[in-house]
Amino acid sequence: MTIKLKKRLTNLAFLLPALLLFGTMVVLPFISGAKISFTDWDGFSEVYNFVGMKNYLKIFKDPTIGEPIKNSLFFTAVTVIGNNLFGLLLAMALKKNTRVNRIFRTFVFMPFIISLVLTGFIWSYIYSDVFYELLGIKSLLGNKKTVMLGICIMGMWRDIGYAMLIYLAGLNAISDTYYEAAEIDGAGPFTKFRYVTLPMIAPAMTINITLFLGWGLKVFDYAMTVTHGGPGRASETFALYVYNYTFPYNKAGYGQAAAIVMMAAIVVITGIVTFFLRRREVDL
Q1: Cα torsion at 115, 68, 75, 126 (round to 10°)?
Q2: How far apart are CA 262 and CA 112, in angstroms?
C-alpha cells in the first residue's frame, strides 16, 4: 500500500462518520419525501395513492402561493442587504484589536448564539411589552403592512454579528501596504475603500451574501414562533406554507412537493448568485 493511498484511506476514515450522519439525517429523509410528493398521503393514514405530477402542477396553479413567496423574497432582500451593510460598517468600526473593541464585538456577536425560536420570543416581548407598554409604540407585528419588517429586524439583530465576524476576517487579511501605496498616490478614505477594501473583501462578501440568501429564502422559525403566519397570511413565508400543508392541513403529499420545489429554487438561486460573485473575485 502506497503512502498516497494510505493518506486517502485515512481521510476517508475521518469523513465516514460525517457522511453516515448526513446520509441518515438528510439523504434518506429526502428520498422518502420525494416518494411521498407523488402521492396524496395525509400524513397519518397508511394509504398512499399515487397521483403522479398532480401535486407539482397544483403548486403553480395555487392562487394563495403568491403571498408566501413575496414574504420570503422580501425577508431575504432586506436581511441580505441589511446584514451585509451593517455587518461591514461594524467590522470597519471595530477593526482595531483593542480591549474596548473586543468587548463590543462580543456583544454584537452574542445574539447569533441564541436560537431562532428564542430570538422570536425575545422580540415578541420587546415589541409588545417594551415598545408598546413603555413607549406607546404600536407593535410592528400586529399590522399587515409592517409585520414582515418587524420579522426582518429580528433576523438582522441576530445575524449582523455573524456578518461582522466574516468581514473582520477579511479586513484583517488586507496588508497595510495596499493602503500606504494608495495614500502615496493621493487616494482619500472613500477611494481607498472603493478600490482597495471592497475588492480585497470580495471573498468575505461572497460568503455572507450566499449564506444569508439561503437562510432568508427558507426562513421559518421567526414567522412560526411569533406570528404563526398572521395577521391573516401577511407573514406566512414559503417554508411556513410547506409546514401548514404538511401538518395542520393534513396534505403531506402536497407539502412534500412544495418542499422539494422550494429546495430546488434555493439551490438554483444561490448557485447562480455564487457563480457570479466568484467570477467577480477572479476578475479583480
Answers
A1: -50
A2: 25
Residue 17, preceding peptide bond in cis (omega within 30° of 0): no
pLDDT digits (tens, 9 = 90+) for 22-80: 999 888 988 988 999 999 998 888 888 999 999 999 998 999 999 999 999 999 999 99
Helix (H, G, I), strand (E, B) or coil at 134: coil
Distance separating the N- and C-terminal Cα atoms of the chain? 44
Q: How far apart are CA 135 and CA 179, in angstroms?
A: 46
| Phi (first) and psi of residue 86, to 5 degrees | -70, -30
Question: Hey, what domains does the chain have and what are their CATH numbers?
Answer: 34-283 (1.10.3720.10)
Cβ atoms of 101 and 230 within 8 Å: the answer is no
| DSSP state letters, 231-259 | STTTT--HHHHHHHHHTTT--HHHHHHHH
State the pLDDT at residue 283.
47
86's grid cell: 451593517
- Cα separation, 82 vs 59, in Å, equals 31
Residues 6+ apart with CB under 8 A from 256: 33, 34, 36, 37, 55, 246
Query: 64 - beta bridge partners?
Result: none
Let me know if 73 is exposed, middle or buried by CB neighbors in 10 A (0-12, 13-18, 19+). middle
Three-state SS for 107? Answer: helix
pTM above 0.85, yes or no: yes
50 phi/psi in degrees, rounded to 5: -70, 125
Helix (H, G, I), strand (E, B) or coil at 186: coil
